[in-house]
């Protein structure tokens, strides 16, 4: 997951925090070590900072100052990590990269899904009349990616015609979704393209802090169409594909 702080470039509304932070800093969060190891190898002038039992790597990546961190799996880990990046490292925008399961039937292992909207599929207060996925008393149902970052990510995919890319909704929950019935239910209820365990919580943190974000996920499997790949075989492919898109985004900034 990545965070970018140039509010002038991104066209964000200004705030007292961003006014004091003129340095363009990119924070990168991966849920698992495998999702960041390639990026960490490419980082220069790296310094480690320990906070809340997490290791944050400050350095230079592809010509940009960055902060990279492995958050751990799940919504709470991801949200807590994102807030530390915002509050203590003063990042002002966020991009998440990682692995997800496919939901739409036309999505296969190795494909990329760029999220345009994000919902927490395991939030359910429908007994009070809320739509499933609606966070109670939140003024929005889904969290929308920043338009400029979203367009940058889409443009970056054009540099990699060998990687099939999709744009659509990513849903998150503290559940590992592996059954056809559950994936079909998620597709019906949320019209989702991909499902995983972190993105929508990071999106909520970004929304609450009024910072732009976008999330890019590599697809490992799809229970909706029966497409699977051995995890050990997939991880190098997934990391390679999402890293390639991210690097092209950096080059276009």
Strand and helix map with partners:
Elements: E1 2-4, H1 7-10, H2 16-20, E2 26-30, H3 33-42, E3 44-51, E4 54-61, E5 64-70, H4 75-87, E6 94-102, E7 112-120, E8 143-144, H5 147-157, E9 165-172, H6 180-190, E10 192-196, H7 199-208, E11 213-221, H8 231-252
Parallel strand pairs: 2-5, 2-6, 6-11, 7-9, 9-10
Antiparallel strand pairs: 1-2, 3-4, 4-5, 6-10, 7-8, 7-11
Helix pairs in contact: 3-8, 4-7, 5-8
Domain Nucleoside phosphorylase: 25-250
Protein name: adenosylhomocysteine nucleosidase
Enzyme class: hydrolase
Please sum up the structure shown.
The chain is an alpha/beta fold.
Characterization of the model:
It is a single chain. By secondary structure, the chain is α/β, with parallel strands linked by helices. Helices cover 34% and strands 29% of the residues. The chain has eight helices and eleven strands. It has a five-stranded mixed β-barrel with strand order 6-10-9-7-11, surrounded by four helices. Strand 9, helix 6 and strand 10 form a beta-alpha-beta unit. Helix 3 crosses helix 8, helix 4 runs parallel beside helix 7 and helix 5 packs across helix 8. The radius of gyration is 17 Å and the shape is globular. The two termini are 17 Å apart. The N terminus is likely disordered.
How can the largest sheet be summarized?
A: 5 strands, mixed, barrel
What's the tally of helices?
8
Instruction: Report how far the terminal alpha carbons are from each other.
Output: 17 Å
Helix content: 25-40%
Mean pLDDT: 87
Order of strands in the sheet with most strands: 6-10-9-7-11
Evaluate the radius of gyration. Answer: 17 Å
How many β-strands, per DSSP?
Answer: 11
Low-confidence stretches: 1-22
Order of helices and strands: EHHEHEEEHEEEHEHEHEH
* Strand-residue proportion: 25-35%
Principal-axis shape: globular
